[in-house]
């Protein structure tokens, strides 16, 4: 049997870890997708990277407190912890362009950044 997934408590979410997690364009794009489209399963995320790399990105997001992962059988539902992040660091998601689009002339997401 697998152990419980680690999720930091709201009080334990660190600005350094959140900024590190969101410094990667793919992880920032995953957070943007969660913000605009809501919760997703791992299989609904389509990036031009290996599954193991996507799993690593999701783990970094979860362990930093950016995402919450709920295990339902063999499915994992991923959700942006918007309320927790806004309570700890008001305006941060706007500042790192998760909740609003990038300014004109900048790539719109990770896929564009990889091209």
Please outline the helices and strands.
Blueprint: H1 15-22, H2 25-37, E1 40-41, H3 51-64, E2 67-72, E3 75-80, H4 82-88, H5 92-95, H6 110-114
Antiparallel strand pairs: 1-3, 2-3
Helix pairs in contact: 1-3
Please give a structural write-up.
The chain is of the alpha+beta class. The protein is built from six helices and three strands; from the N terminus they run H-H-E-H-E-E-H-H-H. It has helices at 15-22, 25-37, 51-64, 82-88, 92-95, 110-114; strands at residues 40-41, 67-72, 75-80. The chain has a three-stranded antiparallel beta sheet with strand order 1-3-2. A hairpin with a 2-residue loop joins strand 2 (67-72) and strand 3 (75-80). Helix 1 (15-22) runs antiparallel to helix 3. The chain starts with 14 loop residues before the first helix and ends with a helix.
Report a brief summary of the structure.
With 115 residues, the protein is of the alpha+beta class.
